[in-house]
């Protein structure tokens, strides 16, 4: 792979993504296979004045061995130092930023004890809840990007030998991440364009959205009180602009957790706990899932929905046109960072505090009152179809066409 592009990709993540500021600490979560990229990121961060770069390495092969061979009780006893390894930096000067590099094999834990995998994932989320709050509420700058591991690349391009599959996935990631010419400038332009539509959606202050498609989807999504649409860049507590996901094509907001009704069909497979949920259908009544099915992975979907009470409701609704550059690649990535930016989606579980006015300063109870959902999970599932129609219903009952045939018409 082209080292010049890799360097640009690292600079894009550090300068446009987390937008590291002089004197800040950059914490990088990365797989060991991403060492070359991490070196570029660290250099870019120090060039930008970072005080220190701290890397948390992960090794997916070891993760699988450990998941398989460790007793459940031991796995689920997640030690406090893991959360502290973030909080000590975030809290000390209040000025750490987090760059997470994903790219795990979507079927990493396939064939293992699903109940154990799920119990561990819940235990870990609970043990890291405070750290997670810093990113979910955008209190600090954070950004997620991806690097292709062999397992992932082979899943995306099964017809190619491993090495070629990795190379092709790199090229695809560079393309959809706007890594050509000046990537940092490209992202500034992209953010500006999308801000205009976001502002129009905020002006409309819709009461609910109605999603329909020939696949059977007929879903009303009531929006949270005082909801605000977000997308592209956000601002940390300290007022630093950052882009949480690269790539990103979505505009998203908070649904009202008690006002979602109807049927919705999944349009892309969803990776959960290292395995796949495919062709699912979910029925909502008064905001809660009352029925569900899936052609494969129904048991996984059941686990997801039974995580806690909030897992039965949704915390995010996001609009992505069918013409999104990621969708146009016509590749199924089996990775939420990409697939969620190829199609409209909803997320089971927790909502983002920043999707209601003043939400970052509210308690969980105050957010629930506005209709923002609470849960230990936040799982985005894709529902966008090529023929999707979305109608916005205003507070006075009047209707406005937002999407027709999968595209923005608003
Ligand atoms: Zn989203
Ligand atoms: Zn989401």
**Kindly, what is the distance between the CA atoms of the first and last residues, rounded to a whole number of angstroms?**
40 Å
Bound molecules: zinc ion
Give unreliable regions as ranges: none
How many structural units, i.e. domains?
A: 2
Query: So what's the overall shape?
Result: globular
The whole-angstrom Rg is 20 Å
| pLDDT averaged over residues | 95
Class from helix and strand fractions = alpha+beta
Q: How many beta-strand elements?
A: 19
Tally of separate helices: 14
Q: Major sheet, described briefly?
A: 9 strands, antiparallel
Strand content: 25-35%
How helix-rich are the residues, as a percent range?
Answer: 25-40%
Walkthrough of the structure:
The protein is of the alpha+beta class and 410 residues long. It has 2 domains: 3-183, Thermophilic metalloprotease-like (3-Layer(aba) Sandwich), CATH 3.40.1830.10; 205-229 and 249-408, no CATH class. It is built from 14 helices and 19 strands. It has helices at 3-17, 35-47, 60-69, 72-76, 80-92, 114-127, 129-136, 150-156, 162-176, 183-204, 298-305, 325-328, 336-339, 364-370; strands at 25-31, 52-58, 96-102, 142-146, 208-212, 218-223, 234-235, 241-242, 251-253, 255-265, 270-272, 275-285, 288-296, 314-319, 345-349, 378-382, 389-393, 399-404, 407-408. Strands 5, 6, 10, 11, 12, 13, 17, 18 and 19 form a 9-stranded antiparallel sheet that branches. α1 crosses α10. The protein is globular and about 55 Å long. The two termini are 40 Å apart. The mean pLDDT is 95. The site of one zinc ion (ZN) has 4 residues, from β16. The site of one zinc ion (ZN) has 7 residues, from β14.
């Amino acid at each position: 792979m082209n080292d010049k592009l890799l360097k640009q990709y690292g600079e894009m993540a550090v300068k446009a993504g987390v937008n590291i500021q002089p004197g800040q600490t950059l914490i990088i979560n990365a797989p060991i296979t991403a060492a070359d990229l991490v070196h570029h990121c660290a250099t870019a961060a120090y060039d930008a004045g970072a005080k220190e770069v701290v890397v948390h390495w992960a090794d997916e092969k070891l993760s699988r061995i450990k998941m398989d061979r460790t007793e459940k009780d031991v796995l689920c006893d997640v030690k406090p130092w893991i959360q502290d390894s973030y909080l000590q930096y975030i809290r000390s000067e209040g000025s750490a930023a987090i760059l997470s590099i994903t790219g795990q094999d979507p079927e990493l834990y396939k064939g293992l004890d699903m109940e154990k995998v799920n119990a561990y994932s819940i235990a870990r989320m609970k043990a890291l809840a405070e750290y997670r709050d810093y990113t979910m509420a955008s209190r600090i700058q954070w950004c997620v990007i991806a690097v292709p591991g062999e397992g992932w690349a082979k899943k995306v391009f099964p017809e190619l030998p491993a090495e070629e599959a990795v190379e092709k996935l790199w090229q695809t990631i560079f393309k959809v991440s706007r890594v050509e010419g000046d990537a940092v400038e490209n992202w500034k332009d992209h953010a500006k364009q999308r801000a205009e539509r976001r502002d129009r959606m905020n002006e409309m202050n819709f009461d609910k959205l109605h999603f329909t498609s020939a696949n059977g989807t007929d879903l009303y999504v009531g929006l949270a009180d005082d909801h605000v649409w977000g997308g592209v860049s956000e601002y940390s507590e300290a007022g630093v602009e950052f882009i949480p996901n690269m790539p990103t094509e979505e505009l998203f907001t908070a649904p009202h957790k008690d006002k979602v009704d109807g049927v919705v069909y999944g349009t892309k497979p969803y990776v959960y706990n290292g395995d796949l949920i495919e062709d699912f259908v979910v029925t909502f009544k008064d905001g809660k899932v009352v029925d569900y099915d899936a052609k494969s992975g129904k048991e996984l979907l059941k686990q997801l929905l039974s995580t806690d009470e909030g897992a039965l409701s949704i915390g995010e609704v996001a609009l992505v046109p069918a013409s999104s550059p990621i969708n146009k690649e016509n590749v199924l990535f089996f990775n939420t960072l990409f697939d969620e930016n190829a199609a409209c989606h909803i997320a089971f579980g927790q909502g983002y505090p920043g999707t209601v006015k003043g939400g970052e300063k509210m308690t969980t109870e105050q957010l629930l009152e506005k209709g923002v959902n609470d849960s230990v999970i936040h799982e985005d599932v894709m529902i966008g179809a090529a023929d999707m129609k979305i109608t916005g219903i205003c507070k006075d009952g009047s209707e406005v066409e937002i999407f027709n045939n999968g595209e923005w018409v608003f």
